[in-house]
Amino acid sequence: MNNSPNFYPVIIIGGGLAGLVSAIHLSKFNIQVLLIEKNSYPKHKVCGEYISTEVLPYLKSLGFNPFDFGAKAIYNFELTTNSNKKISSKLPLGGFGISRYKMDYELSKLALQNGVQILQDSVTNVIFLNNQFTISTKNNGEFSSAITIGAFGKRANLDVKLNRSFIKQQSPYLAVKTHAKIAFKEDLVALHNFKGGYCGVSMVEEDRVNLCYITNFKSFKKHKDIDAFQQQVVFKNKSLNYIFQNAEMCFEQPLTISQISFQTKKTIENHMIMCGDTAGMIHPLCGNGMAMAIRSAQMASLVIIDYLHKKISSRSEMEKQYSKMWDTAFKARLKTGHILAYLFRQEWLAPMLLGLISYFPILLPLIIKRTHGKPMTAVECL
């Protein structure tokens, strides 16, 4: 093993959910981890902030219980069409709401308690040579590792540096997120459709409501600004109109993110193990990206531990096992997400589909099951 002071068995690039969870998991097996994150904690992120309870057994085994930090239990789902029809259903597994501001911050503290080193810096390049990674940073020079996890989010400069195929293609999606204060059922997650998009609504800690919508940028840019778009498009949905017009907004300005890509990505790039959104995103319509990030972190951690403990004989076998686990867990989910997103993009077809669901409400929990997984197993730590 390399004895250089800048060498780590594992370096994780990106300190979102996938990066933090994998860092905590690995640290519990006495594996030294350096996590490099460009932002400081806590920080708000554009995110729906709803998570399926499938992740709870695993998170609790790592020492993190979201309900200790004010998470709201969610059992019910409501969908409204852009013609203001309403469809309701029970969530097959249930979920919970917690902000990324709170969750990432508390996970970062847990990681530090477990001995993870967190460096605030930007990674500028990653080179794999002679079975070792060299990671260049903007402010702190170079580091090396036996294994590198890429968990740097939806779209980053590093994707360009690595010449990843999806980064060359324009993506038409724009997302907007804010928090608000308004009376809202804390056990409910709602998905309100409007022309060209939809908005997720659910409670998080401190009795705040997360409002996060996604739309086609082509539709958005026809309007002067966010306010004009909301007034002329979003508020045609009566439920959204009521919420936005009567809520006390908690942010001075909403957060926005563009160029969101749902294209297929590689789970291994230049021998880096990709996790979370860096490996692939399910369409927000399916509302389960956070759970996918956490599950991918568990899968990466399991194969890395086996590789470092010589239970997996080679790097190529470790990479194959991770890719196979990813496909088994997510391939069907992602396909369902792509199909649903395509169908809902067809403006003539979406109202018919929603009408069909309203006549046959049994279809809704079946669709939800197709985009969610079974409860995760707890990790048995050293």
Automatic annotation (TrEMBL):
Membrane-spanning regions, if any?
7-26, 348-368
Keywords assigned:
Membrane, Transmembrane, Transmembrane helix
Q: Which residues form a coiled coil?
A: none
Quote the InterPro entries the UniProt record gives.
FAD/NAD-bd_sf (IPR036188), Geranylgeranyl_reductase (IPR050407)
Give a yes or no for keyword Chloroplast in this entry. Answer: no
Entries under PANTHER family matching the protein? CONDITIONED MEDIUM FACTOR RECEPTOR 1, GERANYLGERANYL DIPHOSPHATE REDUCTASE
Q: Know the name of this protein? A: NAD(P)/FAD-dependent oxidoreductase
What's the source species' lineage?
Bacteria, Pseudomonadati, Bacteroidota, Flavobacteriia, Flavobacteriales
